[in-house]
Amino acid sequence: MSNSGKKSTFTGSPQNQHPSQHNQQQHPHQQQQQPNLRPSSGDAGFFQDPPRLGNQFEEDVGLKRVLSLYLPPALLKPLHKELGLLAVAALSPQVLHWVEDAEAHPPTLESHDAFANRSDNLRTSEGWRRLAELGAHQGIVAEGYEGRYGRIGQFAKYYIFSPSSALTTCPFAMTDGAARLLSQHIPHPATSIQSFFSLNSSLSSRREAEIKRQVFYNAHFRLISRDQSARWTSGQWMTERPGGSDVSKSETVAVYSPLAPSSQMEDGTEELGPWVVDGYKFFSSATDADMTILLARTPGGGGKLSAFYAPMKLASGERNGVRIVRLKRKLGTRALPTAELELKGMRAWMIGEEGEGIKQIATVLNITRVHNAVSAISFMRRGLAIAKAYSKVRIVAKNRPLWTIPLHLRTLAHLELYQRATTHLTFFTIHLLSLSESSTTPSLPSPNASSPLHTPSTPHQLLRLLTPITKALTAKLAMSTLSECAESLGGVGYCENEEPLNIARLLRDAQVLSIWEGTTNVLITDLISSLKRTSRAGGEEQGWVPFNEFVEENLGSPATATTSRVGEVEAEVLERCKVALWEEWKEFEKILETRSKEELTAGGRVVLWTLGWVLCGVLLIIDARRDGERTAVEFARRWVLEKAGIWGALGEYGVLEGEVEKRARADCWAVFGEKLPEVKDRARL
Hints:
This protein is α+β, with helices and mostly antiparallel strands. Helix content is 49%, strand content 10%. Among the domains are: 61-188 and 203-224, no CATH class; 234-259 and 268-358, Butyryl-CoA Dehydrogenase, subunit A, domain 2, CATH 2.40.110.20; 558-684. It contains 22 helices and eleven strands. Strands 3, 4, 5, 6, 7, 8 and 9 form a seven-stranded mixed β-sheet that branches. The radius of gyration is 31 Å and the shape is globular. Belongs to the acyl-CoA dehydrogenase family. GO terms for molecular function: acyl-CoA dehydrogenase activity. This is Acyl-CoA dehydrogenase/oxidase C-terminal.
């Protein structure tokens, strides 16, 4: 029977309803009052306020305290002004544009011209060249030789400049090392060339020695110059295919083959060297340098390596026997031209005695490793600055600012402690470097006479121990700190951001710091060799004696007792730190005494970290003793009593619930230098 024309009374099934009736039916959720839902779009919705960095010197309380340990007040005031201005320049739009340009336009190599002629035309970006000019003008190298602030002021400027340098600091490091090495082989004007070289030398030998002295003098003058028309940078070529860090397997050969006297170069100021170098260098950082220091074997060196100086180009503009084979493709340091080089007929001058190349190059390595450490701590500081600035503008669950979350504060405080401790370690190493050079650089400023820091009687011996420790620890901690800083920004931290917020660039570049100038294990081998060195009599010397002297004098001498400006509570904390650290050191010293060189090497990382932990602890205590400043005392306490300077040690776990808020307040003061808001006020910030 047909139902046409008959109205249905069934209304229980929506599919049997008329469309208009269905549209009028309200969904249960529609019966409630609806919020004003608006979808986000490319132009609407939530937009995160970007973090903004302040003056990277003025905000760095730790650096200011470190500098005051080493420089007198008369020098601190003008240096602070210069560092503040440099910090402004480092974050200026112009400098940040140069950094981005250097990263976006890495070096390229044009090996041949259009007619197949060999050209080896190396091109670098404008940003790279401008940053190098800025660094030279600021005295990144020159300040350590002719500046009024000496090595401390030099590396303070380096520290501020480095995160915005696009790694132009790499050639500056080698330039500094080369300048120092050449200065050791330039006779003082009051010293006649006859007394500097053997009186039995032939006339031609004396003439060659005089020319070499002038060549070295001219090169040194250019290496420490701030003048853009005169300044040079230097390379440093040691790494070859067989050995990597093991230069004993070098295949580069130098043969003595002097040119006739008529071969003087056109400008009349320099002569081509009498040695001809042939070989293959597998890594050459700063391929755009004007000169280089390199190692090569010589027939008369008994199979040992000798050190050489060579200009990169001849007066005609042609390369001095150098062919750029290819540029390296690298994880980081993309703006830095790194290449494989073939040397054929390269003219060079020998530095020092034949067969003493390792001894000579050690001078360069000591300085470049210090540069490496300063780069590491400066990268850590920039990464922390970004992470802290982001936490100030980021709102998280329950409408709480990220910077008030106890767990996040704990993380940042731990990173801040590592950065402060390694900054102390690095600048103390710089201080030792300055003291070891003082006999040959008398114009450098005197240390701060009122500093409570005990100066070791043999700074060069302690420097020998500290250089590998400082370089290794700062490199490792830079990588882990920057990784944490990137993580603190979430997914944004993983991206290539605009400068100066690009933690990804810093993290990529930091990876080289644990490799360049000696990997961690190579440095450990050097360290153990210094700790357990063989005496001239054939026995074993206790190479840690200078280390023990430093610890004992700075922890226990009356001259370093806690000052009257420190309150009773702070003084009691620092006394406990002193006792605990001394006991830890003495227990570890027994291990150094009883274990063989082979045993210590096998456990070398424990040796490295323990010595670094002890030394940083001493420096943190010395700093806090001066005035009992709240954060300085707290960092000393955490480092020593909680062993926060040792991965996975006490202080990582077990904070009781009742202590969470107290710890968060201490963390907030340590990280931001301000009080943590009350719980009830945090969501309203």
